[in-house]
Amino acid sequence: QKEVEQNSGPLSVPEGAIASLNCTYSDRVSQSFFWYRQYSGKSPELIMSIYSNGDKEDGRFTAQLNKASQYVSLLIRDSQPSDSATYLCAVNIYSKTSYDKVIFGPGTSLSVIP
Amino acid sequence: DAGVIQSPRHEVTEMGQEVTLRCKPISGHNSLFWYRQTMMRGLELLIYFNNNVPIDDSGMPEDRFSAKMPNASFSTLKIQPSEPRDSAVYFCASSSEYGDNEQFFGPGTRLTVL
Fold this sequence. Notes:
heterodimer; A: mainly beta; 5-stranded antiparallel β-sheet; 11 strands; 54% strand; globular; B: mainly beta; 4-stranded antiparallel β-sheet
């Protein structure tokens, strides 16, 4: 099992709809979770971080974390064409060497159709 | 405040040549990461440094790859000799010990080996 998994997509949603992006991870003791957005030809950009179970909202973005089920999701409300990008889930993986490591998922490609 | 700086932004070279990629992390950040991104393999961690010391180089593909961080504001990734399969986008990222492992990415270097 891969450490961080995401559906590769592409996920297509109409403008104004809610886009739901999901991510599962294998390390039960992970404590930090991140969502990055990457536009084509650009570098990943951090958009959300979440550390506690439940929801965290920031504008049109809501991150949801369920540690018991080992999944984290990102909801984008009122999706806009400018949200079209690849979304990378990243999880802080505990390391026995005492230095934690952030592992990125393969990313989900989102396309918002006008 | 300047973000992570990488140079060159584009590099085209011939197989067998030496390639050196450069990175300047965000001032005050004490962790630095080198990633490689391809369509096939996604975003792969090659090596990361903490306080200028290499912590995990398990992602370095083979002995042709080497990385150094002589001081807190500069790192290099060298490929010698380069091969066509090394063609990819190489990202450098940095993070602060005072955060929760949020990484900030540079613009990347697009490497093409002919």
